[in-house]
Write a structure and sequence with these properties.
The complex is a heterodimer of chains A (53) and B (518). Helices cover 42% and strands 0% of the residues of chain A. By secondary structure, chain A is mainly α. The longest helix of chain A has 15 residues. Chain B is of the alpha/beta class. Helix content of chain B is 37%, strand content 18%. Chain B is built from 18 helices and 21 strands. In chain B, α15 packs parallel to α16. Chain B is globular and about 65 Å long. The interface between A and B is large, with 32 and 51 residues.
Chain lengths: 53, 518
Amino acid sequence: MINPTQQNNQNNKSDMSDSEFKIMLDAMINQKFEKRSKDCTEQERKPKADKGV
Amino acid sequence: MPGIALILPPGWTLHPGGPHIALPLLKGFLQHHNIETKIHDLNIGSTQYHRISISEDSVVTACKDFTAKAMNSVYFEAEDKLQKLAKDFDGTWFAHEGYRRNDCNLASPADIESFSRLESPFTAYLKKKAIPEILGQDPQVIGISITVPTQILQVFEIARLLREAKFDGSIVLGGNIVTRLYEDMALSWVFDIVDGLINLQGEEALLQIYQSLTTHGDLRAVPNLTWRCHGTITRNQSKLLSPSKFQQPDFADLPHQEYWGTKYLTMVAGRGCYYGKCSFCAIPFGYGKAGFIGSSPAFKVVEAMKEAYQMTGINRFKFIDEALHHKMMQDLADVLEHEASFSFEAYLRLEKTWMDKKLLHKSAKAGLKKVYLGLELITSDERGLLNKADQADPLIMLNNLKDAGIKSHVFCMFGFPGTGVKQAFDTIEFAFKHHDLIDTLDIFPFYYARHTQVEGVSVTDDPHHTWNVEHKYEPASSSTLPPSKVNILAEELGQLAWSKHPQWFHPVYRMYSPWHVN
């Protein structure tokens, strides 16, 4: 199991590329949470939101 | 008698079920001073012109089964039409985010100056309908409010078209974006098109501009005005609006049945944020150094709600106070609990006073349907960096709200300097675990808002992009995520939450949620 605390420190390292960071997050998500839903939701377009105020 | 025309330009979000409150507040003030004032909402007008809308009925029908597919069907039928219009002008037009022209950087005044000369998806509407209607009123002063950056390009197109149509009165710009940018907006080419920039509250400035132009013509005493005086750009003295001069919003002139989804009106009790110290938040800047200019008495607010209801037939209200104070809620509830006809929603801080079950039940009885809570991150040592100084237990507060029959929206913000993956994952885990207490939720990446001070980052702004409302930055320490990774973190966890709880994010559900029982 990936330890989020360790990852919190690791991911701030400047030597990790954005693509490596994304792969790491995907792995953490798949480990920590149930696999993403297989129903149609995942394939549905997600309306674009702004960034808040 | 010719008066003042107030314009909300296209480019603001199309999601709200009612008008932005800025212009109704100005109209209420100006009408109180016997100045004939007319509001022109060109944001909703531009979609009316193209017959693009989302009706209340379609929202209610789509939300019967809460699937992303049903809600998307309604939403994208409208948004795809906007995008088709924008594509012909090499741009994008999202229903929530507004219009952007490709290759035009909205932070670059040089880009705005050149691109605002080009035709846009709004040109036909402006030339054939909006501008003839505005000038048909024969106003002496036209005030244009800029509330978000995606309106800036259209503002200068409108101003140019007004001049082309031989309007020779005063054009002044105001609103939150002008307040945040007015020093950098004071450029010579800007004053070739418009006559003034108004920062902070525009009430007294507009009143005095109008009075000056109809009498002596001297603008030197007009508060909050930046203008060109005999060739020299001049900044007049700043003055905050005193609470004794607050007037309530006047919603006449507006096409209330044309707004998208379930209809409601905006309302305000306190102006600004009574706390105003969150590290990441630039909202208080728009209300002067204290970030807050005062409140109207509750009975006045209720009077305004009653008048608005009588005028429009709409009895739903969204309080836009950045945070409604518990004392104001108590006072409002004292009056409203005997007025069974009103529903409302409000933003609250996660303060212990809101854990009071009695207050929540009283508020619900008064008509409070939904609250918006700035959780940002679940409790941790690192959350303290946000300087929110709120100490309510989020779980107890969410439980108490649900128990009182009040829905909750939760704002999350990931990647603030000094926070990272662990705090974001812990927050999402909390939300998933207690999903039955959460009606809707947002996940935002941290961005460095101009006029805030954030530790742990270095600003790397492009010197040509002086109209930026958020800084570019890079980490100044190893505990800070760079912006690219902040965006990936928010996007990845947002996609995860979307796959599990699409209604949390869906704009069609949000057009339905506060006002209907699931």
